[in-house]
Amino acid sequence: MAGFLTTHVLDTARGMPASGLTIALYQISGDDRAKIVEMVTNEDGRTESPILPTDRFETGTYELIFQAGDYLRQTGQAGDHPLFLDQVPIRFGMNDVDAHYHVPLLLSPYGYSTYRGS
User: Fold this and answer.
1) Predicted local distance difference test score (pLDDT) of residue 79
2) pTM (two decimals)
3) Does residue 112 contact residue 77 with C-beta atoms inside 8 Å?
4) How far is CA 59 from the centre of its chain?
C-alpha cells in the first residue's frame, strides 16, 4: 500500500457537508511553501479524488488552506466585515509512507476543529 491524503469539510452550523469550498495543499520545507494542488469540495464536502494521491505522496510537512470566508459568504453565514474566519490553515506532518492520512475540517462561522481521521 502507498500513502495518500484525503480531506473533507462539514458545515456544523448547517448540519451538512460544505459543498463548493476551495482547498489548497502546500508542501512546507523550512520557510518555503510550494503549492501542490487546489481543489473544490463536491456535494458530499469531499474532493473528487485524494488531494494528494499515491503517485505524488511524500512524507513531510504540509498545509491545507481552506477558503472558509468565500464559502461562508456564498452560504449567507459570513456576518459583518471583517470576517471572524476567512482562510483556515492546518499545518500537519505525515511520516508513514504507507498510511492513509485524512484531515477533515468541521466548520462554523465562528469556530472550527480538525483531527486525524481515517
Assistant:
1) 84
2) 0.96
3) no
4) 17
